[in-house]
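In response to a reviewer's request, we include the raw inputs and outputs for one of the modeled complexes. The two entities were modeled together in a single run.
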Amino acid sequence: MGFFKDHLRPVFVMPNIKTVPRLPVFSLFALLIGIFAFSAICTAQAPATGESVTDVVIADTKVEAEATLDSGNTAWMITATALVLFMTLPGLALFYGGLVQSKNVLSVLMHCFTIACLMSIVWVVCGYSLALTEGSNEWIGGKEQFFLAALTEDGLNGDFPESVWIMFQMTFAIITPGLIVGAFVERMKFVPMMVFSVLWLLLVYVPVCYWVWGGGWLAEKGVIDFAGGIVVHATAGAAALVLAKMLGPRDGYPKRLQPPHSPGMVMTGAAMLWVGWFGFNAGSAAAANGDAGMAMLVTHISAAAASLTWMFVEWSKTGKPGLVGIVTGMVAGLATITPASGNVGPMGALVIGILAGFVCYFMCGIIKEKLGIDDSLDVFAVHGVGGIMGTLLVSFLGNRLGGQGINLDSSMEQFKVQATGVLASVALSVVATVIIVKILEAVCGGIRASEEDIVNGLDQSHHGEKGYYNL
Amino acid sequence: MKLIYAIIKPFKLEDVKEALSEIGIEGMTVSEVKGFGRQKGHTEIYRGSEYTVDFLPKVKIEIVIPDDLVSKAVTTISESAKTGKIGDGKVFVLPVDDAVRIRTAEHGDEAL
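The model returned the following structure tokens for the whole complex.
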């Protein structure tokens, strides 16, 4: 290996403005400017009411500005924020990166990185405000925090800084569109990918976040979604399936596919996801306490159980236990426990993990072979189905096997609310995805990269870079 | 002089190199290649999707030697690379018009 080192002389090259795809990039900038402008206009029109701007709403608890800061909770939430960002950068990036062909590895890393940056901006401009501050109705939040105008250094969300809450929630807003990347790898155009992510965040993630966590109509009904089975996994999974179908399959699908170019990279990313998920689920307790501890414990048990279940199923079906398989089982277990991690006990988590390993394994085959949809990295089969399953299962496992209880009086009542939440969020995600893709196809002249770009690999054709030299 | 190039199983490279060294052939060029003959590829399965891998990794050894060493070299390579199982590889012998040592500009057999 490494016989012929390319000699690269740094040469200053004048950027050729002609190579920039004008209309799509223009549309991206127009979109971002539009979001800025819209938010600015809304902010300017907000009348001064004299209300304390540090009042914030978390679920159904309103906290006065006189609440004091708990440094233990603050320290944990800051840490959890870092852990969840770590899940995207580089956890998810490496997990997805290793699964694609080597000629596309950089494009996947680029998708995750770019999405992280873009969602961060959109979140502070208007996303946070619309998702998590009190609105005038039960469908969408308010505009007081557009541009984080009402944020002060000492402002609190409960007993830890609002700045930390904004950041913690931002990392969720980052990873959710990041999950969708798995559906469109190796063939989606870069600018439409960016525009899609921004629009999807605003049209799907933000509303559903408000419905479930911002005090919206699902929260009022008593829905249980501790860390994002509905808000993150179900919505992303549904969008992934629709987008994969509309975009068309990978080159060579289904008979001439290439195996993952770096199963080692996949496992590395998956391991980062496992560790980071402690921030995702235990951080959703919003406190350094027993709830967080239990959430971490059940999260871990589900991951381990699902990993082993998948490994054994794969072993029996293919004759060998694989690395890519076992880590995929892990992801399935983690996605499934996510909505239930605040309510189930350790044995409930064991049940969830085992079910996740089984069901998601077979769902991969069903989506790819029976439905013939190239959701390339199985986002719907693993995250979507996992998130939905966990959301429904919490109705029955939250009040059994050592669980901490459910919100409503009976499992069936809870199940109806959970199902309502799932259906409504998935429906929104599906409809919005279809609309966004249709718009993008018109404005950007199609969202699928050209055949030539796909064959040469997006690393070279879209990003002008090579993942590995001498290969 | 002749060019001998052999396609062998990768793990046999050390054995072939040592065997050639014992008969006085010290220099060679080695590259990593992929290929198949009658040895079939294999199937890998990831997440329920089957991937057929036809091309198998092999190693190509190239040596240019005087005519009088050719038959000994071919036998040496064949014996040291052999496992008896399918996919052991092949040896080819081609004529060479000339060879030049770049440092000294020697030609012909002196350059080998």
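As requested, we also summarize the result in words. The beta strands of chain B are 2-8, 29-35, 42-46, 49-53, 56-65, 89-95. Chain B has a mean pLDDT of 93.
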